[in-house]
Design a protein that fits this description.
Blueprint: H1 2-8, E1 20-31, E2 34-46, E3 51-55, H2 62-69, E4 77-82, E5 85-86, H3 92-102, E6 103-106, H4 110-113, H5 120-131, H6 136-149, H7 165-176, E7 183-187, H8 195-212, E8 215-219, H9 223-228, E9 231-236, E10 239-250, E11 257-265, H10 277-282, E12 289-293, E13 298-302, H11 305-315
Parallel strand pairs: 3-8, 3-9, 6-7, 7-8
Antiparallel strand pairs: 1-2, 1-4, 4-5, 9-10, 10-11, 12-13
Helix pairs in contact: 5-6, 5-7, 7-8
The chain binds adenosine-5'-triphosphate and magnesium ion (MG).
Adenosine-5'-triphosphate binds next to strand 1, strand 2 and helix 2.
């Protein structure tokens, strides 16, 4: 009630308190006269201090979104804001400053993240030098602290080819953190690593999040990474379709803790939502569903009017109760 009353008054802007705001984001690529709609009205809010994963099938638009958030690409329409900066209207000068100070980026290809002829320490100190402001000795000390925080002290004077793939990716995280960005973006950072190494690289992201308070967004195909964060957002056909939230709950009686995870569908402001494909297939839902408003939830039922019409034609049977003998639709929310 309170919330409803507040929203009727001076309604705060969508995502006003979020660090990352994507509002009906659209990105259309036109190549050889063929249009590809990589993002089709994507909504996403990320709060400051979150550590979250983005998942989705190949071609669903994950990298397109990351490139926009990194300030490397400009959306076709919609709104994208990071830390109050408008990524559509930002000029070249501001864009450069944004990429240097506000966001850090880690790519999948280990070779793309580090300069091969510089040591780990020099790689981390370089963005600090480009940003200016700190003296050489200060930069070296700050770089050394970052390497130590990510357990890379032993790689200080090694060049990338003298480091393992996992060490290179952790060094890449240190480089991305060099100018203490608010947001750390990573596109498949563990894609080229085995699962044990991937685990260590993921731990480095967690350290950045916990020790420095950096907001972290990781695109991943890695189930273990996706399972280890509290929030996993799934992108489907250029839109955020659903998200899984996990939290630890303590049993009041026994004191035992367990991880509870729930899947939510995203609901946009026009009321559109995407049902998970497997839910739709298992209930034979397509084209149209029957809705029933209950006091605390909405029931979603397969549309049987086509079956019923066929039955009426053959047996003369009248409309039947949609609840009759069918699996139940949406369960009440959390
Ligand atoms: N520069 C581009 N020019 C034309 N089409 C593009 C371009 N970049 C991406 N696309 C298209 O946009 C869609 C989304 O691509 P994107 O790279 O964002 O997918 P993705 O989710 O990152 O996939 P993957 O998991 O394979 O990395 C795809 O159909 C892709 O072919
Ligand atoms: Mg990609």
């Amino acid at each position: 009630m309170e919330r409803r009353a507040a929203s009727r008054g001076d309604r705060p802007a969508y995502g006003h308190d979020a660090l990352i705001v994507c509002d009906r984001l659209v990105r259309v690529f036109a190549t050889d006269g063929v249009e590809v709609q990589a993002l089709q009205g994507l909504d996403l809010l990320v709060a400051e201090g979150e550590l979250m994963a983005l998942v989705g099938a190949s071609g669903s638009g994950k990298s397109t979104l990351m490139n926009i958030l990194a300030g490397l690409d400009v959306p076709t329409a919609g709104a994208a804001r990071v830390d109050g900066r408008d990524l559509l209207t930002m000029g070249a000068r501001d864009r450069l400053a944004y990429r240097r100070d506000t966001v850090g980026f880690v790519w999948q290809q280990t070779a793309r993240n580090l300069l091969p002829y510089l040591t780990a320490l020099q790689n981390v100190a370089l963005p600090m030098r480009l940003a200016g402001g700190r003296r050489r000795a200060e930069r070296a000390r700050a770089a050394e602290e970052l390497l130590a925080m990510l357990s890379l002290g032993h790689c200080r004077d090694r060049r990338p080819h003298e480091m393992s793939g996992g060490e290179q990716q952790r060094a890449a995280i240190a480089v991305a953190l060099a100018n203490t960005p608010k947001v750390l973006l990573a596109d498949e950072p563990t894609g080229e690593l085995d699962s044990a190494t991937a685990e260590q690289v993921f731990a480095a992201f967690r350290t950045a999040n916990e020790e420095l308070g950096t907001t972290v967004v990781i695109v991943t195909h890695d189930r273990t990474v996706a399972d280890e964060v509290r929030r996993t957002v799934a992108i489907r056909d250029g839109r955020t379709a659903s998200e899984v939230l996990r939290r630890t709950e303590r049993d009041a009686a026994t004191g035992t803790e367990s991880l509870v995870s729930r899947e939510y569908a995203m609901l946009d402001r026009a009321g559109r939502l995407q049902l998970p494909t497997d839910h739709m297939t298992s209930l034979g839902m397509a084209h149209r569903v029957l809705l029933e408003l209950e006091s605390d939830h909405i029931g979603v039922w397969p549309d049987h009017t086509a079956d019923d019409a066929a039955r009426t034609r053959t047996t003369g049977e009248a409309d039947r109760d949609p609840q009759d003998g069918d699996a139940r639709g949406a369960a009440p929310g959390a």
